[in-house]
Amino acid sequence: MKHNRVFTLPVLSLIALGFILGTSEFIVVGILPDISDGLSVSLSVVGNLVSLFAAAYALGTPFVTAFTSKIRRYHLLLLLMILFLAANLLSVVAPNYGVLLVSRLLVAVVSGPLISIGMTFAGDVAPAEHRAKVIAWIFSGFSIASIVGVPLGPMVNQLFGWRMTFLFICVLGVGVLFWLAFSLPKSGEVKSTGLLTQFVLLKDRRILLGLLITVCGAAGTYVFYTYLTPVLQNELGIPKAYLSMVLLAFGVSSIVSNLLSGRIAERGGMKRLPVCFLLQAVVLACLPFTTHSLVLGLVNILALGVLMYLMNSSNQLHFLDVAGQDYPYAQNLASSLNSVSFNIGIALGSFLGSLVVDLLEMRDTGFVGGALAAMAFAAVLVLNRVERKQPA
After folding, report:
1. What letter does residue 74 receive in the DSSP assignment?
2. Which pLDDT band holds residue 285 (cuts at 50, 70, 90)?
3. Distance between CA 367 and CA 359 in Å, rounded?
4. Per-residue pLDDT averaged across 1-24, rounded?
5. Is pTM, for the whole model, over 0.85?
6. Closest CA to 21 of 149, 136, 131, 127
7. Is 126 helix (H, G, I), strand (E, B) or coil?
8. How far apart are the C-alpha atoms of 30 and 23, rounded to whole Å?
9. Which of 378, 343, 385 is CA-nearest to residue 25?
């Protein structure tokens, strides 16, 4: 049932879903050395848990969401949540690196569809005028995880060992599972059809441009963000003792970014994004010139934190609205496209960032990021022009 207020129990359960998925995805980074020691595997090999997770997430999500589209969304969400818990439980008991890798790939393959299906409930649990705000808060669950859930990983690891970190996720996940089961509506079906028929959605210019916008926008951010800690330490000279405080401030700025994305989606959406990408391109391009000053550098970096997720809600609603209008049988697939393209952007941005660091200076990641943000700016201008010519 929809209510006039935003933070109802169903909405809070979806935010909690975003939080547990974000915690599960990011928590491994803080315990990689202990996993390496515990399984007697080199740190470089264990590091593949992060890159392969992102690859499985990006490749598996659209196919799983499309393949399972004939299952009732409520039941599908709970089924995927149970598989998510089982995969994390496998991580707890993994006897070697191979089993741990399989468990993390399983987590990745179900995490994308989980958050995508969760997004489709936004229109069922809140009035239409609050749909963008709900989606923004679900995305914020990931940002909250980065500053609250993720630091708990090293803490649990230090007290009980790295395996208990995954058990910690399982315990939280069981609570989220019951919360979702008892609060989400069981109605609100979506039409579905054959697996291949759903991918006709990807022939639509509006969808392709939306994918390009997300990939370029995410890549522009992650060219820089991948090397945030080295930039803070090596370029700005921030002592290790104060690093966690700066990272916390950046995490808060990213939460603000997600919440602002909801406001932007409510007040024009894609029509407002050109200004956002233009600002992002300028601020990124300024990075090489501001890192010579501690104050200017911090202001610039926190500004990037506020800008990095402004596209999220508008892009998510764009994919859902195009599918709802012309491809109602592919609603589940459409709901996954923002997450998929964002992860592709992360991979692309990280790769380009590594090239810049190897060939140029670390601060030059700002120039490359600015160029990618400019590409997103151009793509959204083209999309808005296509939208204006689209028959009502």
Report:
1. H
2. very high
3. 13
4. 79
5. no
6. 149
7. coil
8. 11
9. 343
